[in-house]
Amino acid sequence: MSLSVGIVGLPNVGKSTLFNALLSKQQAFAANYPFATIEPNVGIVPVPDERLAKLAPIVHTEKLVPATVTFLDIAGLVKGASTGEGLGNKFLSHIREVSVVLQVIRGFTDSNVIQTGSGDLVEDYLTIETELQLADLATLEKQNPPKAANSGGQANFDKIRWEAVTKLKAGLEAGKSARQVELTEEETEAAKELFLLTSKPQMFCINTDEVGLAKAGSVITEFVKTLRSKGVEILESECIAICAKLEEELAGFTEEERREYLKSAGIARTGLETLIAAAYKRLGLMSFLTAGELEVRAWTIPSGTVAPAASGVIHTDFVKHFISAKVCHYQDFIEHGGWKGAAEKGRVRTEGKTYIMQEGDVVEYMIGQ
Length: 369
Prior knowledge:
Mean pLDDT: 85
Oligomer: single chain
Order of helices and strands: EHEHEEHEHHHEHHEHHHEEHHEHHEE
């Protein structure tokens, strides 16, 4: 299961600074002028998970393999991007590849950094969303109706697909995003191959300063309230506030120094931890764990996944040859010192094909030939 996040927004809102902070090193060229990012920077970031280090000594291994998130830092979009303004469609195409779109919006004041947007959070968001809608509309206008010569299953699929195209086009022309257009289950499936930008799940990151972090909650509440009044479907859980500049500075600290600073500043966790937790929740993802002498590892799956399907993220053959799963909750595994101790206390279960995986399950799969 691969989680990828595309970081988008107007120029000079702090996308590359945030990207640098996430990767804890200067992989992106953060410069004080538009289009400093010429190609999308790609970084694979480990998901912070303190459980792995606690499991390792119990199973006598030093190898920790966390789950990962891929971040793409995409060049700043401007008004008219859908028709080629700025760096145009070249960068819009990169958004089609990600799991979720994270729009970074400027919420800080700094006279040393060129202001490219209106300075209003809502208006800057709508500028980007409009460009994505226009790009999707251009995609839909290139679609052709079904060919009369087609027959059978292909003809039925083409008919459903065209119905989806027609509905989506009408919705976008009315100023909606693709995710706001009501489609049947079959139409939704057929529309996936269109890779529409505004059909993707979205999140929002208000890039503020250290002072702004203290009032981030009220800023997000007002931001959401205003957007909802304009017909934009958005939840507060999809919005986070990060001081990218602070996060970038913290990236140079040791883990102990970072934690000490966050504690003194009254910040519960880093921006990376906040962002990844929000992305997992937005996409309905969770992690299960495997723990043995070879390695301790976290695996990402959609919530609600049954045990055989979950085993497939380890190896695709496991799904076909699944017999059962030995399961122990993480807390019980730690408390009782591993598989043997947990089993003696009756905390290890054998689950079958219908078992739905739970967050924090430590699992050992029984696989046949």
